[in-house]
Amino acid sequence: MEPQTFFRLIFLIVTAGFIISFTSTNFPYAPSSTTGLLDCTDSSSSPLCASRNFLFNKQKPQFSKQDPKPKPKNHDHLSDTLNHPLDPLTVMEFNKVRSLLSSDALFSSGAPHAFHSIVLEEPEKNLVRAWEKGNPLPPRKATVIARVGPDTHVLTVDLSSGRVDIVDSPVPVSGYPMMTLEEMNEVTFAPFSSADVNRTIVSRGVNLTDVYCFPLSSGWYGRKEENKRVIKSQCYSSQGTANFYMRPIEGLTILIDLDTKQVIEIVDTGPNIPIPGSANTEYRFKNLGTTDKTRGLNPISIEQPRGPSFVIEDNHLVKWANWEFHLKPDPRAGVVLSQVRVHDPDTQETREVMYQGFVSELFVPYMDPSDAWYFKTYMDAGEYGFGLQAMPLVPLNDCPRNAAYMDGVFTTADGTPFVRENMICIFERYAGDIGWRHSESPISGLPIKEVRPKVTLVVRMAASVGNYDYIIDYEFQTDGLIKAKVGLSGILMVKGTSYQNKNQVNKDKEGNEEELHGTLLAENIIGVIHDHYVTFYLDLDVDGPDNSFLKVNLKRQMTEPGESPRKSYMKAVKNIVKTEKDAQIKLSLYDPSEFHVVNSAKTTRVGNPTGYKIVPRATAASLLDHDDPPQKRAAFTNNQIWVTPYNKTEKWAAGLFTYQSHGDDTLAVWSDRDRDIENTDIVVWYTLGFHHVPCQEDFPIMPTVSSSFDLKPANFFERNPILRAAPNFEHDLPVCEVKYVSA
């Protein structure tokens, strides 16, 4: 080794060691000023103002003179007050929990410990439903998931009495809690503490100062993952690009002890695979050339001269048109909707639709069985924390001008609270869509032209889980429909290859190409085939908690001879599903059904039970073998729809402890108990799926692809609930000056 390279290597090792030491001794503790902790206007002011990607920032961000000044904070979270039983824990409550735990015997013994989750322990559902504004709040409690030494513990902290109760200690099921931000931070630096890792990277012709290493959850395969928390790390070169994801050091996989941060094993199966080049990987606007002659778009902005039509009361209660619901951020689920109610224009009642809804889990398996890829089967909520990875939304681009924003308040591993600013946005959308219309044919002689515009309310969150970006929308329509939409964007996880063109790919004697497990996107870059599954928890309470699941099978019915000129027609066969196993639904175009949640105790004027139906849109089903280890852990994706009786402890489809779990505490396990689900409090689980075979248009950054499903009223109202909606009139709309530009 050249002397210059040797000294540079020594310098980097020492520096990395210092960073790890500094992080482990300083990062978990509160800064000297709580104000500094909460100030996320400048991302450099607090290490917790961004996702785990902040770990890779080597320079402070530079702002051009044209950049607008940061907006003032929404409000001072130190003065947050409690107004609803489901309001998230406040900064003051987090600090009290931290203080109470610090004096508890479990944590005061000096044993190493970390708090992986501190969230509100929600009151019993019947208490929340019975509560009315102005009444005293139910007792406030916090649920704490902590690790002390090798053991995981679940505790409850009563914020009124100060009592700390151990609920489960140590936890007997397989799996570990989701990682803390600090752990993700430290794992990014851990590989550089190994001289063998550094030598391997240098031997691949990469400068260590250009290397970023990523924490990748290991899954569970029963070998190296047994009886020890481990994580894998793979590295990338950033030389010549900010898009380092496109420059993998292919085949290099580092196994790390997640507790000690020590390197356990190094595997390098790709020493002969070149590092892809940086050409054409740039995606930042300021760095892109302007040679494209595509006709540009003029800016579009929706103006509301009278202001928005929605209000946010008491920080978390959203009211808009005929809807009201409680909204809060969550470190695991991201966004939680609670007590969703809709106003009935005929009865003038505000009626229950859904007690709670959120993303329960995400499953992202990659379809490459090789040593460097087989383990990439991520659970983004239970392993990384979907809410922890939420990004501050970018005004005018993530959300329009008329948006309001909501912050998330979460905690570090030592219980110190921090703020994720602008985590959620709420805005009204009008895209020129039509709510309803009818124009009468000239044949009738009636001059009728009735049209109503469709304006909706959107609740949005965006999470950047490493390379991938997820956009979650909940869109409310005035006709009673709720649309849940998932958008996928960001950057592909790619594989390095020696191939630069398809004509180089090896073929066998029959002319079959070598299996690449993906698509050649650019020189030396393969986009690996993968899936995305997003499972939603939907505790529907249609006019109250006691509901049933109604399956409406659409069947071909043949006519009797001589009955009709028609030979066949379609009929609807309705059956109330009695138990859980019969509500395990695999969608099929050739066995179509509708899926309703009904309240048989409340009927319409003409006798139909009130209900809502789940309306699937484009989706995908897992093709993995049910005995494949990742599919065992993700057995909740074996069906697209499940229905279970309400159980406060059954919220996370992959189990409460997902990291390295064995699949012994999943939605599939609960559902196989085959409990009664008729005329009781039930929960519907819906999985939205995507198969992704990458294509060149996904390089170097992906255009957003989306899918959705609807919760649609089905005999819930007596008639069209937006019958009386007003049309637009010219005098109601602002007139803006238009400057025409000649072509």
Automatic annotation (TrEMBL):
Residue numbers of 2',4',5'-topaquinone PTMs: 468
Active-site feature positions: 380 (proton acceptor), 468 (schiff-base intermediate with substrate)
Domain of life: Eukaryota
CC cofactor: Cu cation
Posttranslational modification: Topaquinone (TPQ) is generated by copper-dependent autoxidation of a specific tyrosyl residue.
PANTHER family linked: AMINE OXIDASE, COPPER AMINE OXIDASE
Name of the protein: Amine oxidase
Source organism of the structure: Brassica napus (Rape)
